């Protein structure tokens, strides 16, 4: 006999949330594949449009350099595009920047997401920005595009909030996978950066979404890695100290990048000699000037990165490229123009690695064969110091270069750059950007009656480890409704003892979900050091 719930209970009740949770797990794989394939086609279309526009822009830049009579109309077009971008951002603020902080804010129930409008505005805005030469990447828009696809499919299927979160996360993962042909990096990015914990359900849904999107993408763009550096040799052990020094150096440069980017955002958000409503034009005018004098630094920089191996640039020119690309990236992203920072920061890291390796060759008789190694080590170390997601970085660089031969030195430089950034108290860049997004935009709250489920891990050594559920002071407005221990699911009672490695399922109100999750993470991750202190 079926139990019939009232309309209110079906829509908002705790019982309905729990019932849907258990039913959803059985269809998670199928829906993840649907989201992944839909995202794959969306990102493929986005990449194709962007490629066509970039080719057109290259011809325009070349024509302007060849015929100086075109300079005035060229700059007028750039000013017009900057005005269009500014109007789009005013109408839909969620398309600003990379889009990753906006996705994280939505998953924390802090901001709404209007899927179709964001998809259209983000594609048009980022294509215009990157096509105009701004130093921005396609990966951030691809992630936000995928998240919006997941949101749209969730709405189409009539899914509840908890189910929607998985589909949005799967879409974001698929977006990164399709953008860089890196499905495993996409999964790890969702676990390490977006959710900041390991959840079997998140892993299952994101993995199938990422693989589906990558399959679609490879059918259009081929099986080759995004970055083809050729055959990479393994770095001999007696050269590892050079890699270690590079990791430390990139840690300091990563801290500089984060702090400079935040200062750039401050500059564009405040009135100064130039009113803030007119500042959007600055990076577009910079792009116009650079198109005439230093076109190598325009765009995300994929072409620049791929040319490093064969280039014979001197140390001075490499230093100029690094400085100009860095400053241009700060102004491009700081303006709020739609576009990501993944690719530009990887390019900057690669440039520093090329300069470092060339200096070793010139001054210390270092074999030129291993300069390419220094390029990819620097890319990873820079990414790790800035984003603070070392495992994601290692997998991303390995997938993008198609090589696993340098796993040990990659891990070494990632650890060192991470430690330097941590010792200098530099926050992960997306954490800082998320705080700004939440501060600048109106907070999205839902009804107290709407419920959601939080999946929170218990860390080894946590202060709650070994304690019974009834002996723990839990945050308000939440209820422990499930406990997962490996493949075993336990219905928790007052005397159920929590162990390290457990994953708790918490029922909470949607309006307090973000605050509740933060309190729970502080509670369940805090290590109990009392025994160590006694001994």
Concise synopsis of the structure shown:
The protein has 20 helices and four strands. By secondary structure, the chain is mostly helical.
Blueprint (SSEs and pairs):
Layout lengths: L6 H6 L1 H53 L4 H21 L8 H8 L7 H17 L7 H19 L3 H20 L2 H12 L5 H22 L18 H30 L11 H13 L8 H5 L8 H20 L7 H23 L6 H17 L2 H12 L5 H17 L5 H12 L10 E7 L20 E8 L2 E3 L12 E7 L3 H13 L4 H5 L1
Antiparallel strand pairs: 1-4, 2-3, 2-4
Helix pairs in contact: 2-5, 2-6, 2-7, 2-9, 3-5, 3-11, 4-18, 5-6, 6-7, 7-8, 7-9, 8-9, 8-16, 10-13, 10-15, 10-17, 13-14, 14-15, 15-16, 15-17, 16-17
Average pLDDT figure? 82
Q: Which stretches are poorly predicted, pLDDT < 50 over at least 5 residues?
A: 1-12, 443-447, 528-535
Q: Which percent bin holds the helix content?
A: 55-70%
Relevant CATH superfamily of the largest domain: Clc chloride channel
What is the number of beta strands? 4
Dominant shape: globular
Number of DSSP helical runs: 20
Instruction: Tell me the distance between the termini.
Output: 60 Å
As a percent range, the share of strand residues is under 5%
The largest pleated sheet is described as:
4 strands, antiparallel
Q: State the secondary-structure class.
A: mainly alpha
Sequence of secondary-structure elements? HHHHHHHHHHHHHHHHHHEEEEHH
Gyration radius, to the nearest Å? 24 Å
CATH class of the largest domain: Mainly Alpha
